[in-house]
């Protein structure tokens, strides 16, 4: 699929670009017909590079001065002669110990890597948001047949108590146009400050798509209708029972028993929407089953808070913020999962399922029952049977649509008595086409979750009386931190997370694993390279599958397993808005507080000379600075090749390049520049002018501010009697009066602005003669 229209681009340009991309991917384009009559002709290209430029980045092999590196290299290669020479021992003494030591080191090194991929979601208690007035009109959207009659008046009353003007909008279940009309009517002539949705509380199965709840489908429709109505106020979604809060010293089991997977799906949907709609997405708030007035007031205070928290659980005993933290297994590797009997793997012939089967066969599984929609007709199925049979494992591959309960039940009845079912790995699922939520229909949303959701529900119901050693649901990191353009996929996977919590609360085995990407054919090379560039590289499939072999995994309800390059991922992920989910990860905090925060510009840099340059020279120096770094990022040999008037988007910038440019300019200028500056100042010329305003604005006032800093330090040490004897407060007030007179007509300016606008002589004279504190 190739887009032929793009915002901000002419139709002809967009059409030609789309045709070019299609042609580059193998689509036949009749160029001769297109260029007919234009005079265009084919020309021969030279067999050498057009210009004398290097086309590959210079690579310098890293130096390794560690004297132990040669020893460990010889150990890895099991080079007994080299090791014997280093250790000054006889070769025969190493014959048995070296292979054992090498294998031991390799296992522990692999375990350390895999351990670094492990995270979990937890809930951190936070102080109640400070009470603030809710200005403007709030649209409260409720289901047509609302069952939470007791909740609505409490919430409406709390909103009114905090000063909001409330307009209630009843939503139909599926009619996007009608809901858009109702929203537009409610918002007509009003200053809409926010939208509060209670739709997720309708937990009934959708009549056409039972894998979706009315609430989840309604939330999708609401998002689309708000866009249709042109309402850009932040949308907050309320759930109840979507998450289980784990308090310190207390397991989450008490709340897990009442978790509703349908409402958990809304949290996954919200994680995706936060990436797709960063400017209009407010957040998610989960309430207790029977909220009181205090809970409702906390909800209102969360809506007005300016702390960026967008995933909250409000309970009678306080507020809790969602966080992702590390969850290392700890200690040395302790055994492996060695399943007896039959293990069922849904989606077993796909890239991921096949690797799970290989891992289990390698661990000595007796019988593996693999399912897919095509069974033995699936590509590679026959070869997989041959491979795993050679390892001594009995393999059965059957065609089965796990979304069909009867078909799945019939399959389970075929499990041989000599190999009873002891474990389940549910890896079946359907990928979503990448698209914004406004471009998807409810049918498409439902289709994405059909096999994943219904398959899990049917397995849970059909195996409720089985004593299983493992019941593993393959979820996705998209349900935790989101994935742009995949809100439906995120919602479907979050459903599995909720189901695992509820199942375990019933005393049954269940583990939902939110996976990062596997290097198992899940993505093409181009997307894989992009994911690596943004700091979320694919995990080697065999190593990822090995996580399932850790027995401790099956004692957890939910686990996140993903590889992150945090210095790259963090700036890109937080580019459009804060992401508090990651705030408790030390690696993330280091990035946010450290490398991106500027510093002191090099004394030899052009920036250090700016203050002494004429205005025209300042502009030239800063434009050269911007073009130099843009050229380095885009691979230009000469900064002069960067068109200063061309939009960054046209130059080839994406969000990752924008973050990289910000980081470079932070280091060059010593300033903490905003990550969105490339999008706010869209050409090198505009960005250079912005930098000039940041670096050169108020140059005349800097000496004044320095003297004021000195004054502030001196005044802070004064005793009360000294303050009174010097009449310092009255004199400072006199200075403010004088500045007000100098800035007549600018009564709205704050004190710091007035001081910056005063002349140096004004301030120096005041400090030296009036205050007597210089």
Automatic annotation (TrEMBL):
Gene3D superfamilies, per the entry: 3.30.70.3290, 3.40.50.11460, 6.10.140.1830, ACP-like (1.10.1200.10), NAD(P)-binding Rossmann-like Domain (3.40.50.720)
Keywords, comma-separated and alphabetical: Phosphopantetheine, Phosphoprotein, Transferase
Protein name as it appears in the record: Carrier domain-containing protein
A GO BP annotation: fatty acid biosynthetic process
Residues in Carrier domain copies: 620-695
A Pfam family: PKS_DE
UniProt keyword annotation of Nucleotide-binding present: no
Molecular function in Gene Ontology: fatty acid synthase activity; phosphopantetheine binding
């Amino acid at each position: 699929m190739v887009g032929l229209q793009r915002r901000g681009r002419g139709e002809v340009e967009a059409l030609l670009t789309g045709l070019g991309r299609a042609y580059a991917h193998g689509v036949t384009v009749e160029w001769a017909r297109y260029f007919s009559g234009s005079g265009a002709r084919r020309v021969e290209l030279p067999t050498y590079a057009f210009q004398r430029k290097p086309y590959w980045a210079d690579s310098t092999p890293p130096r390794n001065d560690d004297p132990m590196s040669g020893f460990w290299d010889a150990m890895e290669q099991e080079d007994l002669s080299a090791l014997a020479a280093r250790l000054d021992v006889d070769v025969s003494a190493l014959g048995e110990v070296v292979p054992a030591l090498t294998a031991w080191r390799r296992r522990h090194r692999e375990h350390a890597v895999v351990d670094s991929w492990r995270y979990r979601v937890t809930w951190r208690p936070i102080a109640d948001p400070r009470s603030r007035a809710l200005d403007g009109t709030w649209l409260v959207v409720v289901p047509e047949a609302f069952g939470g009659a007791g909740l609505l008046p409490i919430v409406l009353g709390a909103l009114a108590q905090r000063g909001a003007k409330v307009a209630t909008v009843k939503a139909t279940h599926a009619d996007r146009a009608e809901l858009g009309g109702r929203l537009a009517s409610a918002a007509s002539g009003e200053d809409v400050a926010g939208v509060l949705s209670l739709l997720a509380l309708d937990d009934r199965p959708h009549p056409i798509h039972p894998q979706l709840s009315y609430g989840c489908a309604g939330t999708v429709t609401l998002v689309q209708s708000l866009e249709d109505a042109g309402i850009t106020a932040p949308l907050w979604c309320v759930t109840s029972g979507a998450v289980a809060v784990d308090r310190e010293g207390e397991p989450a089991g008490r709340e897990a028993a009442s978790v509703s997977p349908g409402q958990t799906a809304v949290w996954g949907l919200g994680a995706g929407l936060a990436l797709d709609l960063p400017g209009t997405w407010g957040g998610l708030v989960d309430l207790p089953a029977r909220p009181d007035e205090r809970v409702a007031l906390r909800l209102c205070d969360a809506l007005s808070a300016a702390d960026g928290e967008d995933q909250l659980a409000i309970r009678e005993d306080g507020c809790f913020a969602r966080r992702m933290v590390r969850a290392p297994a700890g200690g040395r590797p302790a055994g492996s999962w060695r399943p007896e009997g039959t293990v069922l793997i849904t989606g077993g012939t796909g890239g991921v399922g096949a690797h799970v089967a290989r891992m289990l066969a390698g661990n000595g599984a007796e019988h593996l029952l693999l399912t897919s929609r095509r069974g033995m007709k699936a590509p590679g199925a026959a070869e997989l049977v041959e491979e795993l049979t050679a390892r001594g494992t009995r393999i059965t591959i059957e065609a089965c649509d796990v979304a069909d309960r009867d078909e799945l039940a019939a399959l389970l009845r075929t499990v041989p008595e000599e190999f009873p079912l002891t474990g389940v790995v549910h890896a079946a699922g359907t990928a979503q086409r990448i698209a914004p939520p406004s471009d998807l229909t409810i049918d498409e949303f439902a289709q994405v979750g059909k096999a994943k959701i219904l398959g899990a529900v049917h397995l849970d119901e059909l195996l409720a009386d089985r004593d299983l050693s493992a019941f593993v649901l393959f979820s996705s990191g998209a349900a935790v931190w989101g994935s742009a353009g995949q809100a439906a996929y995120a919602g479907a996977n979050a459903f599995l997370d909720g189901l695992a919590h509820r199942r375990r609360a019933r005393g049954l085995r269940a583990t939902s694993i939110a996976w990062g990407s596997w290097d198992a054919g899940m993505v093409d090379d181009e997307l894989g390279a992009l994911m690596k560039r943004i700091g979320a590289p694919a995990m080697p499939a065999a190593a990822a599958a090995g996580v399932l072999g850790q027995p401790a995994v099956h004692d957890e309800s939910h686990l996140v397993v993903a590889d992150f390059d945090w210095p790259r991922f963090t700036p890109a992920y937080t580019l459009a808005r804060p992401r508090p989910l990651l705030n408790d990860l030390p690696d993330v905090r280091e990035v946010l507080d450290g490398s991106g925060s500027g510093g002191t510009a090099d004394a030899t840099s052009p920036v250090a000379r700016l203050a002494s340059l004429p205005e025209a020279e300042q502009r030239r120096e800063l434009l050269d600075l911007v073009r130099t770094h843009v050229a380095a990022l885009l691979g230009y040999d000469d900064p002069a090749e960067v068109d200063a008037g061309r939009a960054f988007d046209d130059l080839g910038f994406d969000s990752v390049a924008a973050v990289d440019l910000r980081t470079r300019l932070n280091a060059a200028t010593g300033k903490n520049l905003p990550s969105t500056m490339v999008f706010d100042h869209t050409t090198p010329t505009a960005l250079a002018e912005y930098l000039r305003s940041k670096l050169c604005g108020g140059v005349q006032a800097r000496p004044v501010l320095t003297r004021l800093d000195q004054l502030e330090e001196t005044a802070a040490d004064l005793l009360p009697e000294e303050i009174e004897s010097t009449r310092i407060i009255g004199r400072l007030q006199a200075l403010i009066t004088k500045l007000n007179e100098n800035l007549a007509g600018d009564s709205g300016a704050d004190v710091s602005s007035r001081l910056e606008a005063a002349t140096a002589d004004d301030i120096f004279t005041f400090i030296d003669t009036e205050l007597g504190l210089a």
